[in-house]
Structure to design on (800 residues):
């Protein structure tokens, strides 16, 4: 799911004395900033630490969303007809468009890693900009969907007061407010993750233009890439659960 | 551990005194502390923060016990009483116990025990500290803004009802934010244990403190996010009437309990595993023996971490759960006794034929064994379905919980603080004052909570403001115990302050321990080791380190 660095030219980690002396060599390489932090012995050790840390962070992200998925499962089994009505009230075209855009952005973020591995710095920036544009498109569509729902009163809990019904339907079950409670929480929390992702990619572009990344060192790009794939993956589950299932 | 620095003696002489000084003196000024990325300084900042939280929580505890000295109103109204026990719980759980050992002592010692210069992500470590502070400030703001009387569990629909003050929002957000501090510390420790070990430090040579921290970190990372989403949902429920937990809008308040305990039961292991982790180190040092059944003790930490995820339902036997569900949760709860028993029996077996020294840290370790045994066994009473129906929401639960959390974690924390104080500060403390405060803490604690087992089994409900005349004697005894406990802590605080101002300089290895953390200078130099260490033995191999001798007397 991610562009990992299998083909990267980083030497395999071993903890011999030899490895430790590489430390000094790295300090004299072209980049203006020494990418090896003081407490690591080698670039490989630093990268390994970042990777395992990131994977555990992603694990906690999944657990964070899991509460919402469990709530979805329970209320869906309690109020099947309300959840069916709720999914018909969402705009499938917009949801599908967002799915396609987000999937595409996962490709572009992976390509930006590839570009840095090949030493093509400006190309990497281009791919990151495309990724950000995709993310912005996603948020704009989300904004349009939200404002429509707000406008016609499809709101969670006490604010649920529908004023407009799809063709052929005269009323929706009262329990549909539970559906919208779940819908707004799931997509809202996911949307916040998209916004954080946009911020992270702006940061990457600044760092890349400053020349911080080389084919030997691009750990932050890879980590943000992993994060972005997870944000994408969660949407892949949200879209069918909320929009498609009857 | 042999580096070119072969013995403890050598390490002491090769300290950085000549060019940098130790980590306390390497740089100076407020900024050098507030912006430090050194795990040792961050550990000390955490230590100060959690001790302040402990003081605040302790004052609330004394207020609770004072109010309960007599039936009826003693010094505050019922509504105030509800707020006081809520704040006691929230502060002690989220601001003190959870970060106490991992964030303060763990931060300081985990990298040193691994032979590393720092944790894997030093900046993230500092960020964790400030996120914790932000959470603490929000909690304070919540106390100032209004009153929270929900208990530390925030059960819905009581907590989300419009009748509760808006400070529920502040405290929910505070818990949410402090949760992220805990998660980031966990991620940091996991990466550190996996990737920062010195050459020769294999998994079966890891100090058991590290194993305990590792198991704790796994729970922190995998359980805390569920609390985060739970309090976020509670926040939205209270703020905009989301309808997920509120039955008036088709929500399910029991779902909140499931979510809450899915975190908060594993959180009990976040709290107790570090206490056990400290006790391992103390027992090995003060009985001069390798921990009996090392691998079993290490794996029992991991087993507790995993089992902790499967037993949350035992908090909800009376909340409305299927008979099948309660039976499964009850059976799983009994499984927890196995790894806990492995630890207790292996510690006792380590003591057997050891050269036992009863220095103050060891007194705490022995107290831990005794008190945790009581806390753990009474937990089995509560895990038994038929008994729990009788004891649920009584003082028996309060007593059980405090025997585990105070008799276990706090005693372990204090033992660790005494044991590592010379390492962290470079100063010795008054052993006689340490003994006096230990006796007061031990006696005061038992006097405070032993009567609560009796109260609970006779039907005194927890959280009640008033009680029947027949319970007066036991309540009064409990309150007197709490005061004695408080005096013990005051003497201990005096002892530590005295050590900082007038204490004698500590030798490099005051307990003649074979533990890796004692192989550096005392206090450690800025980057922990002058030369990268290479590990060629385990941390408890007293048979391979005869040059250490026995524990000196102070």
């Amino acid at each position: 799911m991610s562009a990992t660095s299998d083909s990267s030219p980083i030497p395999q980690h071993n903890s011999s004395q030899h490895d430790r002396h590489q430390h000094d060599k790295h300090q004299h390489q072209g980049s203006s900033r020494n990418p090896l932090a003081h407490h690591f012995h080698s670039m490989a050790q630093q990268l390994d630490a970042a990777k395992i840390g990131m994977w555990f962070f992603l694990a906690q992200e999944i657990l964070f969303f899991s509460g919402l998925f469990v709530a979805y499962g329970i209320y869906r089994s309690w109020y099947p007809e309300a959840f069916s009505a709720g999914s018909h009230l969402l705009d499938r075209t917009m949801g599908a468009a967002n799915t396609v855009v987000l999937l595409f952005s996962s490709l572009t973020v992976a390509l930006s890693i590839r570009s840095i591995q090949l030493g093509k710095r400006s190309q990497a920036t281009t791919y990151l900009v495309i990724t950000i544009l995709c993310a912005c498109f996603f948020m704009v569509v989300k904004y349009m969907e939200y404002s429509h729902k707000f406008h016609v009163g499809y709101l969670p809990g006490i604010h649920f007061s529908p004023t407009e019904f799809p063709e052929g339907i005269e009323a929706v079950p009262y329990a549909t407010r539970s559906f919208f409670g779940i819908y707004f929480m799931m997509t809202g929390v996911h949307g916040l993750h998209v916004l954080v992702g946009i911020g992270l990619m702006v940061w990457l572009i600044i760092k890349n233009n400053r020349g911080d990344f080389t084919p030997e060192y691009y750990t932050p790009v890879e980590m943000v890439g992993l994060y972005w794939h997870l944000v994408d993956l969660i949407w892949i589950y949200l879209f069918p659960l909320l929009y498609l299932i009857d | 551990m042999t580096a070119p620095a072969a013995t403890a003696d050598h390490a002491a002489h090769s300290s950085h005194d000549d060019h940098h000084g130790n980590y306390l003196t390497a740089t100076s000024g407020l900024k050098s502390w507030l912006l430090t990325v050194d795990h040792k300084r961050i550990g000390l900042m955490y230590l100060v923060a959690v001790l302040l939280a402990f003081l605040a929580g302790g004052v609330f505890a004394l207020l609770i016990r004072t109010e309960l000295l007599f039936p009826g109103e003693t010094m505050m109204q019922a509504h105030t009483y509800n707020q006081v026990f809520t704040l006691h719980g929230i502060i002690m759980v989220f601001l003190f116990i959870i970060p106490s050992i991992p964030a303060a002592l763990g931060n300081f010692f985990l990298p040193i025990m691994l032979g590393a210069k720092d944790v894997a992500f030093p900046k993230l470590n500092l960020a964790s500290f400030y996120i914790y502070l932000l959470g603490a400030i929000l909690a304070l703001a919540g106390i100032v803004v209004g009153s929270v009387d929900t208990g530390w569990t925030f059960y819905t629909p009581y907590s989300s009802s419009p009748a509760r003050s808006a400070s529920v929002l502040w405290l929910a957000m505070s818990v949410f934010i402090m949760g992220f501090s805990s998660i980031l510390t966990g991620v940091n420790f996991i990466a550190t244990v996996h990737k920062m070990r010195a050459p020769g430090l294999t998994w079966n040579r890891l100090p058991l403190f590290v194993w305990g921290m590792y198991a704790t970190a796994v729970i922190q990372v995998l359980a805390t996010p569920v609390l985060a989403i739970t309090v976020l949902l509670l926040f939205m429920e209270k703020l905009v009437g989301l309808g997920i937990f509120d039955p008036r809008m088709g929500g399910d308040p029991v779902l909140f309990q499931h979510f809450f305990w899915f975190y908060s039961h594993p959180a009990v292991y976040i709290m107790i595993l570090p206490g056990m982790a400290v006790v391992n180190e103390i027992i090995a040092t003060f009985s001069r023996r390798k921990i009996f059944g090392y691998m079993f003790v290490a794996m029992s930490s991991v087993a507790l971490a995993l089992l902790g995820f499967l037993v949350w339902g035992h908090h909800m036997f009376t909340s409305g759960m299927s008979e099948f569900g309660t039976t499964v949760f009850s059976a799983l709860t009994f499984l927890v006794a196995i790894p806990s028993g492995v630890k207790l029996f292996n510690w006792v077996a380590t003591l057997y034929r050891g050269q036992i020294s009863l220095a103050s840290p060891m007194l705490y370790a022995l107290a831990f064994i005794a008190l945790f045994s009581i806390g753990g066994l009474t937990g089995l009473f509560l895990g038994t379905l038929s008994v729990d129906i009788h004891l649920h929401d009584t003082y028996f639960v309060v007593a059980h919980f405090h025997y585990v959390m105070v008799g276990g974690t706090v005693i372990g924390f204090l033992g660790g603080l005494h044991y590592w104080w010379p390492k962290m500060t470079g100063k010795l403390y008054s052993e006689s004052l340490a003994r006096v405060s230990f006796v007061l803490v031990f006696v005061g604690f038992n006097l405070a909570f032993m009567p609560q087992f009796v109260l609970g089994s006779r039907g005194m409900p927890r959280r009640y403001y008033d009680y029947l005349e027949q319970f007066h004697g036991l309540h009064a005894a409990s309150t007197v115990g709490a005061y004695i406990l408080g005096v013990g802590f005051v003497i201990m605080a005096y002892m530590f302050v005295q050590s900082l101002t007038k204490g004698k300089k500590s030798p490099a290895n005051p307990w003649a321990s074979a533990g890796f953390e004692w192989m550096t200078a005392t206090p450690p130099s800025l980057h922990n080791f002058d030369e990268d260490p290479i590990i060629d033995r385990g941390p408890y191999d007293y048979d391979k380190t005869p040059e250490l001798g026995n524990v000196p007397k102070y």
